[in-house]
Write a structure and sequence with these properties.
Number of strands: 17
Shape: globular
Number of helices: 9
Strand order of the largest sheet: 4-3-5-6-7-8-9-10
Binding site for substrate: 118-121, 211, 244, 274
Order of helices and strands: HHEEHEEHEEHEEEEEHEHEEHEEEH
Radius of gyration: 19 Å
Bound molecules: 6-O-phosphono-alpha-D-fructofuranose
Cofactor: Mg(2+)
CATH topology of the largest domain: Fructose-1,6-Bisphosphatase, Chain A, domain 1
Largest sheet: 8 strands, mixed
InterPro entries: FBPase_C_dom, FBPase_class-1, FBPase_N, FBPtase, Fructose_bisphosphatase_AS
CATH class of the largest domain: Alpha Beta
Catalytic activity: beta-D-fructose 1,6-bisphosphate + H2O = beta-D-fructose 6-phosphate + phosphate
Organism: Lishizhenia tianjinensis
CATH architecture of the largest domain: 2-Layer Sandwich
Amino acid sequence: MSKVVTLNEFILDRQDDFPFATGELSRLLNDIALASKIVNRDVNRAGLVDILGAQGNTNVQGEEQQKLDVIADEAFIKAFENGGEVCGIASEENDDFVAFESEAAMNGKYVVLFDPLDGSSNIDVNVSIGTIFSIYRRKSAIGTKATLEDMLQKGTEQVAAGYVIYGSSTMLVYTTGKGVNGFTLDPSIGEFCLSHPDIKAPETGRLYAINEGNLNRCHPGLKDYCEYVRQDDPSTGRPYSGRYIGSLVADVHRNLIKGGVYVYPSTTNSPEGKLRLIYECNPLAFIIEQAGGLATDGKNRIMEIEPKRLHQRVDYYAGSKQMVEKIHECLRAAE
Ligand code: P6P
């Protein structure tokens, strides 16, 4: 039986991956892992304790805040504020960014942008949900309060990114720009253990994740793509399959492992798209590109988009390289 490598051991072994880092990024990744274990515990108890059902508030997106959303948001903010590596955060659940005010935090080198619990509408029906995080070096001076400019950096500036999927098992998947590695939580020891080293997304696949209910309200090229996947894959003679979980992290994770594509286009209802650039699309794009896939807005790399607003939304086409390229072909042909 091969040696169990815990996340902590892996991060320490890979310390040299972070040039000039003196351990802060390692400690920050461990803080995220700890907060994920706390959220995992609450997600697993959701059906038992009175934390199901809406908190009664609505978040900045106008979505009813589930109690677990709020619990997860608070758990991660507390971990970042107390960890001493982070000077400020921006959360998909909060209207504005937060610049921490303690002296220790203001000396933090990093900012974290995150979606504490994506897919939360699935909580009540026990479908996998996820946390998504993105880590940047601050641009403002050490010792000062974090600024909006710290939060609005291009995805190419990320120093690390990842997600936690609370599913049949709980996994933490992250990259620091040196490949993608996945860790599965072993509840018997409370440790994330290396289970998916060096994840590479298959160049192509048979699974496509799109809400076909939007087809009459989005780019006509997507109708052509959905017509294309109704035929067998010409290169294998095998049929495609639609797999849309309605939980971004779960769809993206499956496509990374098995090959596939996830699409959320802008529609007449959501002219800018639904998914948020800095909390969801950029961190997942970093992971997907590091695993050999593509993540675009239908034309350009997601990570090249200059963010203008915290809650900016974008069109999102992400997953196996050849499948994203095929969609680009359909979009161009229909223009
Ligand atoms: P729709 C969840 O709210 C989410 O942001 C993603 O996790 C998911 O892929 C998408 O929205 C589902 O949206 O409009 O198809 O229900």
